[in-house]
Amino acid sequence: MTETLFTPAKLGAIDVSNRIAMAPLTRNRADNDTGEVADMHVEYYRQRAGAGLIITEAAQISGEGKGYFQTPGIYTEGQVAAWRKVTDAVHAEGGKIVIQLWHVGRISHSSLQPDEQAPVAPSPLNAGVKTFTANGFEETSDPRALEVGEMARIVYDYTHAAEMAMRAGFDGVEIHAANGYLLDQFLKTGSNQRDDAYGGSVENRARLLMEVTSAVTKAIGADRTGIRLSPFSPANGISDDNPQETFEHVIKGLNGFGLAYLHMVEGATGGSRELAEGEDLKALRDLFDGPFMANNGYDREMALNAAETGHAEIIAIGRPFIANPDLVERYKRDAPMNEGNPKTYYGGGHEGFTDYPTLDG
Ligand code: 8OZ
Prior knowledge:
Elements: E1 9-11, E2 14-16, E3 20-22, H1 39-47, E4 53-60, H2 77-92, E5 97-102, E6 120-121, E7 130-133, E8 136-139, E9 144-145, H3 151-167, E10 172-177, H4 182-187, H5 202-205, H6 207-220, E11 225-229, H7 243-255, E12 261-265, H8 281-287, E13 292-295, H9 300-309, E14 314-317, H10 320-323, H11 327-333
Parallel strand pairs: 3-4, 3-14, 4-5, 5-10, 6-9, 10-11, 11-12, 12-13, 13-14
Antiparallel strand pairs: 1-2, 7-8
Helix pairs in contact: 1-2, 3-6, 7-8
The structure holds 2-Phenylacrylic acid.
């Protein structure tokens, strides 16, 4: 008998050959000036095409959406041409690939911004965390609050990026609304102190996400649009007074779109899966009426179990995919896993990127 984890599934219009996704992983190896990926990215993603679905590293939707050194973009012709080589390579191996659309909001540094401007955010509150610039780790710059009149531009930038993604040959997009970046900053009370239509009530805090989702799904189809949320994660200095209430509202709103999937970081991003009192992940999961993608700290046993019990249609595995390009094959055979080297996670070249061995050498 084949375990459910290794059987095909349908995520909206995206047919996947197994229920293991490669989670989005920032690797900081794009050209810092152009935001274009290179030939080594083609090799890196090709090697991992055995995943049912690859979600690319986060890609900024505009110059303003950039917050780290050497992250890729998906808004220029050059970026589209560079990503096209990646999507062609993954498709040639029979894989599927979506791109994660990213606006960092306040998690940025002026030196990474167009004209060295201040990063933008819901409110002028510094996250008090560090980002990675040309000079190494630096404190995030003080952001300025977006004006109401600028929201249409932000929505346009997401839509434009989604259209560019389809032109680059992606099977769809994942809207990054997790981990303390722009859309999460609007959702959560610790970073959103606005008193206009985009702040205050949960309905107002979710407005930008709903507008972005509406515009992107209209542009490329809801069945090719996924969303990532991290309701209970403190990543990047984020907090919310009542995440359960906030995300019940968000998920109810998302249900109306018919999305390809909802990707949820369960617990603290890249850390503990423990929840605090009053945090009910299962209630949120059960509220969503489409394909559910679970993520955070899953190993083989947990993934097998999540697929078998129907907790998730698909399970996203992050860091283990860095060192194990043939992760799906290793899970199938219950084979030993390579250890990743954290020193080469962010930045650099082929080392620690394309040189991890497969089981067959
Ligand atoms: C690690 C380093 C930089 C960015 C996220 C896009 O947390 C990221 C990220 C992760 O979602």
